[in-house]
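Training component of the fellowship. As part of building independent skills, the fellow (R.M.) carried out the full modelling exercise for a liganded target. The chosen ligand was GDP-alpha-D-glucose. The inputs are recorded below so that the supervisory panel can assess the work.
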Amino acid sequence: MKSTRSADLVIVANRLPVDRVKAADGTLSWRRSPGGLVSALEPVMRQNDGAWIGWPGTEGDGDDAPFVEDGLTLVPVSLTTQEIEEFYEGFSNGSLWPLYHDVVAKPEFHREWWESYVTVNRRFAERAAGIAAENATVWVQDYQMQLVPQMLREMRPDLRIGFYLHIPFPPGELFQQVPWRRQILEGLLGADLVGFQLPGAAQNFVRLVRQRVGHKTHRDLVYLPDGRTVQAAAFPISIDTEGFVELARSESVANRAAQIRAALGDPSLMLLGIDRLDYTKGIYPRLRAYSELVTEGHFDVRDAVFVQVATPSRERVEQYRVLRDDIDRLVGRINGDLGRIGRPAISYLHSSFPRHEMAALYRAADIMVVTPYRDGMNLVAKEYVACRYDNDGALVLSEFAGAAEELRQAWLVNPYDIDGMKAAILAASRADQREVTRRMKAMRKTVMEHDVAGWAAAFLEALAAARPAHDKQLRPSRRS
Ligand code: GDG
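Fellow's submitted model of the complex:
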């Protein structure tokens, strides 16, 4: 168990990498929720007396004592029912999320949501201040925690603080809508290094700081009146590539992929979409584009099927309920109009699956269709590429996903352009094997060379370099 002020590396994220689960008899236990972030950070956390601070995902029972799970020190921060509504569903997912994604949905701003955001951010900052060792490194994650860097710096000026935003950072014209825009910018400026997915986001941030806060800037640096400098830079995130390749190569995944094709009636073409059910992901226009291709006779439901997995997400937020109804209705109409007995045009699954099943779906699909209106990166696209170790399979990818900057050989589309999407899906389905292989090979090279461990190492190295005045360096942990 971690004593106070003893962790040399502290991760602050909205969620812990475990879920608190309650058994029927009321006993509480923890279930690991594996994700790319935790697998990337695990080795460096183990080597540096790391601690992870986060919300366990359910209403608090007041017991926020740190505990060790599978060798990792985890520090739960409970949220009340009201905070879940106001901080999490409200300001984080009802204000910031739509605003940072090009206002794809209308952001709502409520003063009590903001107040809750401030309160919760302060609670996280206090926990970090309490557990971080002298001169330790604290790495704050994502849009729910943007005030933590400044709050933490005030409490603990000795710390080296990094911040990483997983979602896009909008241009000034949109960011300006936030009634508390200055507080957010100042919150982020508490960090020594602010990381983004893409260089454009870092530039948006620096420009806003210059215009809105009035600090001097030069290229990717912000000069603060107290003499500190803050660096803003891009660190495109990736996946546990080797983990996915290994999984995809396993016999059980190959068998499961074959079973999936058989269960679909052995179609000659299987298209696949996998997304959290989120209005930013462009599920609606994608399914419309496909249904028009079927209507126009380019695909026949006896021979082709679109499998759409929509993982339940943020179900208590109104906009997500509306989206679910919209998609349900669209799929019902398409299948009602175009399906045959035992042959729906769209095989729609509103559920989440284990990683093994995801890998089998990636292995089974001929064309992966990823069409967000806006996406920080989109890991699904990279996971698909990683699983295609045979260099087969086509990727149709939105220009507005961060991943499009790296996966240039995908069939790139504008999700607002239904005809353009139809043309791309058709082109991908008609491409000859050599073309498909050439594109996939090039994309695989990118994903193999840039994995999530490399991403974490690059960020932490830049953070270490950002403040040479600090003497305590983390022990690096690049996986071989
Ligand atoms: C945010 C940014 C950025 C999905 N369904 C299941 C499942 N997943 C996994 C996928 C993938 C992850 O969830 C989703 O990541 P994405 O990147 O696609 O999208 P967001 O959730 O919106 O993530 C995004 C990311 O942060 C990282 O910085 O790329 O832009 O929006 O890994 O595989 N996993 C399992 N079952 C499911 O049903 N096991």
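The panel noted the following from the submitted structure. The first strand starts at residue 7 and ends at 15. The pocket of GDP-alpha-D-glucose is lined by residues 36, 166-167, 237, 274, 276, 311, 352-355, 358, 375-380, 383 (CB under 6 Å).
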